[in-house]
Amino acid sequence: MHDHELIYDWNSVEKVAPISPRRKIQFLDETLRDGIQSPSVVDPSIEDKLRLVELANDLGIDTMDIGLPGAGKRAIEDVTTIAQHIKSHGLKIKASCAARTHVNDVQAIIDISQAVGIEIEVLCFIGSSPIRQYAEDWDLARMLELSATAIDLARRYNLPVAYVTEDTTRSRPEILTKMFTCAVEHGAQRLIVCDTVGHATPDGIKNLLRFTRNMLDGMGRPDVGIDWHGHNDRGLGVVNSIFAIEYGADRIHGTALGIGERVGNAALDQILLNLKLLGELPEHDLTKLVLWCKTASQATRVPIHPQYPLVGEDAFRTATGVHAAAIIKAEKKGDSWLADRIYSGVPAGMFGKEQQIEIGHYSGESNVVYWLKKRGHEPTRELVAAVLAAAKRGNRVLSDDEIVAVIKTHSL
Hints:
Blueprint: H1 3-6, E1 26-29, H2 46-58, E2 63-65, H3 73-88, E3 94-100, H4 103-116, E4 120-127, H5 130-136, H6 140-156, E5 161-166, H7 173-185, E6 190-195, H8 202-218, E7 225-230, H9 237-246, E8 251-254, H10 268-277, H11 289-300, E9 317-318, H12 321-332, H13 336-339, E10 356-357, H14 365-374, H15 381-392, H16 400-411
Helix pairs in contact: 2-3, 2-11, 3-4, 4-6, 6-7, 7-8, 8-9, 9-10, 12-14, 14-15, 15-16
């Protein structure tokens, strides 16, 4: 039986073209810059940072924001070391660095680029929304002057520039038109549209990206790329990123596990996972996606919630009798494809994991039989009854040690 006969995929109904027709979608990893700005995050050691860069490279992530050198001495040292590592190991991943629209920030990136001998993209940012302008007492003329000066400096040294308008999703179109135009005229090759406080809905993204693309086309600059940088304040970070691709963005930002300020950035691991399942990343090998997430968790001291997609401890575990029985029946058919999907929207095997059947108060005999056989125990009627009775007396899943204790008591 063919795959499409067993799963009717509403996600693909009336889909006549890929999400990204005629465009190569790129990804920018913000874990080591925006991600570690979270107040709950430990700034990783340089060894952990280098490991995260290597894993991002292995996942086919195109660009990595390796820091904000303008933040101080340690930031400069770490960015320099990472840039040297990328160059000396011949990694395909490209380096970028954040900078305020301030000549000192931009100059710090230039200095590292020249010292290491590697191109570093300058992610030059400034707030653009009325609420920011009011709070900061900024005037548009000054904002345009700062932007032009910073971009000019980077371009003088032939560094690529992506112009970041913070809080784009709450900015006025007439202001964005002036800021975008200024940036492009001074040499910015990309515009980074930011949902800095997680305000946007899919409709808002559609309107904003259509406006941005129309403006660039009107300037005769369809070559200028559009990035989407999303946050997760409304819980829409991942889905908004996928809509952003649909509506015209060609580079998507995110962080491992969605770490970042407040409730975090869009989770790049979940974005990659979903695009892989949508058939949009045929050339991306995501077998190290779980390792990347676990490495980021350990490096930043951010625990992974048990129910976090793909990586969480419970992602492929079940103790429910009906669910377990279905998985077991599928395995008995000798069909691993079926077993991996009968109660999972994400095939565990595609990402180096497997389905797990546990024993708890919602379990049935099939759970116990499966658990015992899996570990080399003979599932006699009496032993199965004893283990199941122990589970029914509780209010949670039994640990392996608790089940082994029942087995030992039964064998006496």
